[in-house]
Design brief:
This protein has helices at residues 4-19, 32-44, 46-49, 58-69, 73-82, 94-111, 124-141, 176-183, 198-207, and strands at residues 149-153, 159-162, 169-173, 193-195. The protein is an alpha+beta fold. It has two domains: 4-111, no CATH class; 124-207, Nonspecific Lipid-transfer Protein, Chain A, CATH 3.30.1050.20. A four-stranded mixed β-sheet has the order 2-1-3-4, with helices on one face. The relative contact order is 0.12.
Length: 211
Amino acid sequence: MTSFARGERERLARLLAAAGPEAPTLCVGWTTRDLAAHLVLRERRLDAAAGIRLRPLAGWTARVQEQYRARPYEQLLHLVRTGPGLSLFALPGVDEAANLVEYYVHAEDVRRAGDGWSAEPVAPSMAELLWKRLPMLVRLEAGRRLPVRLVLRHPDGRTAAVGPQGGRTVEVSGEPGELVLYAFGRGERAAVELAGEREALEALRVVLPFG
């Protein structure tokens, strides 16, 4: 069985290595070194990873991430490449379920941080996986903050709707990978098209920015 998560892990490691430790990323305030430290913490220190989502634990997470950040960059890249070790992420199936989107988005965070980027094609079978996960990702990343009904449109015409019903609607069109980047707040560097009333678009921009 093809492991898209493994492929994205390898792609991200190559991009991090090529960029060097102090290159910018689309993660606000983070260099490539910061991003590598985050990836290692997330897989190898589950006691600290909870603070990525839970604000009361964010201080502990930041301290552990800084400890990883202080390590030699090549050591961090080795840990990214080799995976989680003895961790929940090493269980069969968990890598693909938990890491495909994570590594795809962060690879693009590195690749699109500079000028001159362009969208690149995603393998059709991987794109289909991203499409199937997209509604859940939008709910997770934006959830109740969505001020409008969001209609996500696949190039083949399929749609998925997320957000409050009965009010204003915005349609976002693009390839599945680009829509995933939009859902994760990278809309200013994603190849998507938005259509809707001006007031709806401006309200949505506050939650999910776009170019």
